[in-house]
Amino acid sequence: MFTNTHAHIFTWVVALILFVAAILLFKKGLAKQMKIVHMTLRLFYIFIIITGAGLFFNFASIDHMMYGLKTLVGIGVIACAEMVLVRMKKEKSITGVAAGLVITLLITLYLGFSLPIGFDFFH
Ligand code: HEM
């Protein structure tokens, strides 16, 4: 589970879908349904961190600096996603945190895919 990136990718793809679903439900005024999706998303934050940390402890010796950076920015993505949803619920402006989310997500995807483990269907 921690020797390849499949579980890790699965957790953040599901989280991304749940994040979009939570926003759509909120926009439709379905607060109760949104709350359930938001709680499930929080569970997936934990799965992302567990699978990411597993990869980190297995592979960080390859390049401490880049793996450390990937981990930090990855946690930044989770923090921004959470702040977008919480601020949206409180009807506060989300421009800053949404921009932060896009930027940290792009950097995380770039670092993730450029780091050495890579995605290989046959492993
Ligand atoms: C929503 C947040 C995150 C996203 C979108 C994300 C995305 C990715 C992607 C695209 C990869 C490369 C997969 C591959 O090449 O097969 C990856 C690998 C990895 N991620 Fe994440 N990640 C996130 C959060 C985290 C967190 C919180 C941690 C640490 C606790 C972490 C640690 C790692 C490690 C160590 C790797 C292996 C890098 C390698 O390919 O050598 N990630 N992640």
Describe the structure.
Belongs to the UPF0344 family. It is a multi-pass membrane protein. InterPro entries: UPF0344 (IPR010899). There is one protein chain. By secondary structure, the chain is mostly helical. It has one domain (6-114). The chain has helices at residues 6-27, 31-59, 64-89, 95-114. Helix 1 (6-27) runs antiparallel to helix 2 (31-59), helix 2 runs antiparallel to helix 3 (64-89) and helix 3 packs antiparallel against helix 4 (95-114). The relative contact order is 0.14. The structure holds protoporphyrin IX containing FE. The site of protoporphyrin IX containing FE has 27 residues, from helix 1, helix 2, helix 3 and helix 4.
Shape: elongated
The domain count comes to: 1
N-to-C span? 11 Å
Q: What share of residues are in beta strands?
A: under 5%
* Ligand types: protoporphyrin IX containing FE
State the total count of DSSP E strands: 0
Largest sheet: none
Helix content bin: over 70%
Structure in a nutshell:
The protein has 123 residues and is an all-alpha fold.
Outline the secondary-structure elements.
Layout: H1 6-27, H2 31-59, H3 64-89, H4 95-114
Helix pairs in contact: 1-2, 1-3, 2-3, 3-4
The protein binds protoporphyrin IX containing FE.
GO cellular component, one term: plasma membrane
Subcellular location: Cell membrane
Protein name: UPF0344 protein HXA33_04680
Keywords:
123 residues, mainly alpha, 0% strand, binds protoporphyrin IX containing FE
